[in-house]
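hey so i finally got around to running the thing on that chain from the lab meeting. sorry it took forever, my laptop kept dying and i had to restart like 3 times. anyway pasting the input first so we r on the same page abt which one it is
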Amino acid sequence: MGPPVNRFPKTYRVKSFGCQMNVYDGERMAELLDAQGLTAADGEDADLVVLNTCHIREKAAEKVYSDIGRLRREDGSRPLVAVAGCVAQAEGAEIHRRTKDVDIVVGPQAYHRLPELVADAAQGKRVADTDMPAASKFGALPKRARQMRPSAFLTVQEGCDKFCTYCVVPYTRGAEISRPWAAIIDEAQALIDAGAREITLLGQNVNAWRDGTRGLHDLIEEMAKLPALARIRYTTSHPNDMQDGLIAAHRDIDKLMPFLHLPVQSGSDRILKAMNRSHTADSYLRILDKVRAARPDIAISGDYIVGFPGESDADFEATLDIVRRIGHSMAFSFKYSPRPGTPAATMPDQIAPQVMDERLQRLQALIVEQQLAFNQRTVGTRTSVLLERPGRHPGQLIGKSPWLQSIVVDEGAVGDLLDVDIVAAGPNSLTGVLTRKQAA
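ok and heres what got predicted. didnt touch it at all, straight out
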């Protein structure tokens, strides 16, 4: 049995994978469906399931087909199924050819059309839209009205013009576009009105955002004027777009948190050139010198790929060296995996899986060591925490420090911004005691 025909769904579930931009896109798709009168469903019995996919990881498409298969119920029926996001963009009509269990395929630049695609699918049609129109989808999305968590995402820039040889983003998200100034400020205010106290500005290359002569630092300065907004963050940045104005913003704007995620990917100039990265190890470190001169307490996060085609032992040792020189508060490391259609996928000298495994283990051990050391340096200090959600145990609450560390406390309420004294640290979280409680 397939999905019900000639019946518009009453309930839906959006399941998002991957990056923060997918989380944002998932929220916007949910708002579109809310506006059509559908009700969110937490369980497996939703009439419509939207799989909002990510294409960065290895075998991403195969994992999507596995998820699709699990949506079939014991009686043989299934919900309406929409595959959205970057796998939808990359696979396109191939998804319909490979499985009859998908009704809708919609790319990340076309999801504003989701309600009409759902209406067509409810009539028994199999529909797809993976166009990348020049017109921005954002103007077609509803105004933000849902109750927000204390920390919210706001996409301000999409796409990428950098064409790193390992990356599918230019093909799945398109060219770099920046949303207009006024639209961003309006959405930020709507998020604040709905309960957000912290906003993270998102983009594939968020620091490439431009509106005329205004750059990201100007946008952050304007957002800092919004009275009820307590914290501002941004991610992900590219070294090529790390301008002096943005660096100065970390010095001058109190609401901008002392945290920078700036991927370097490798410490080897030879590998960086093969990746088509526009920086060298030295130019990257000089950027960090300027950032730390502006904000000495800033936490640095990054991304690393091990096992890129042709990576020698010496190239990998150069990566370990740059990690030691940077000193991360956290970082993300991955084994290289070929993405179909990217130049690196057909490069010679692909690295053996066992070599990549060993290198990744060594790199991750160093990153965890640095992360623990960074966290331990905060023990005995006082900082602020924005409480975001309940913890695992009764009475626990979890929030974030200015440096994006998770802090566990046993008092307060979700949405509170409190001062705490840090009393313990592990590699992944801190334990805090409310300042007034410890003083008493």
